[in-house]
Amino acid sequence: MRIISGTYKGRKIVAPAKLPVRPTTDMAKEALFNILNNQYYFDDISVLDLFAGTGNISYEFASRGTEDITAVDDHYQCTKFISHTAKALEMPIRAIKSDVFKFLENSKQQYSIIFADPPYNFSIDLFSKIPKLVFDNKLLDDRGLLIIEHSKHTDLSDLSNYSHSKKYGGNMFSFFEHSQ
Predict the structure, then answer these.
(1) Are 72 and 96 in contact (CB under 8 A)?
(2) In what order do the strands lie in the sheet with 68-73?
(3) Cβ-count burial of 101 within 10 angstroms (0-12 exposed, 13-18 middle, 19+ buried)?
(4) Is Transferase set as a keyword in this record (predicted)?
(5) CA–CA gap between residue 28 and residue 40 (Å, rounded)
(6) What is the extent of the structural domain holding 67?
(7) pLDDT, averaged in runs of 10, over the chain (180 residues)
(8) Residue 136: which CATH number?
(9) Closest CA relative to residue 62, chosen from 125, 126, 4
(10) Closest CA to 70 of 93, 97, 88
């Protein structure tokens, strides 16, 4: 994987082969950040990266100047890799080993952007728990955005607070925000 913009633009990060991950493709990541770049000043936001895996999304935010990044994954080797990489690159990323749903139930911090990249084979019931916990627990600030990455074969448009989706190859990003 590579960082596509910012201070570390072009930097390749090689994750151990044994990690149980599916990193967001460069094409999809670039498209996502083009959307976010029109809505946010990256140095002025807080980010929660759920099912963080290799930390791909967290590194991209850090490279663009975000100073408040929390990466959550339940796999020890993933959080260890994120912590090690963040320290080596002097990036402000806190890696937390936790079940994502338990983290969302117990978190008190509000975020500007919450990005979730759960396993593509999640049931719709598991997918639906993410926005429910985020909005019930008021984890997004007033302008906040929840983004869930999923397969193009999964439809999340019936979930509460759904706004819209964007498709990039086999990937989809579904966006959720406060009801207007």
Answers:
(1) yes
(2) 93-97, 68-73, 46-50, 111-116, 140-151, 171-177, 162-168
(3) middle
(4) yes
(5) 18
(6) 45-177
(7) 90 80 78 91 96 95 97 95 96 98 96 95 94 96 95 93 91 88
(8) 3.40.50.150
(9) 4
(10) 93
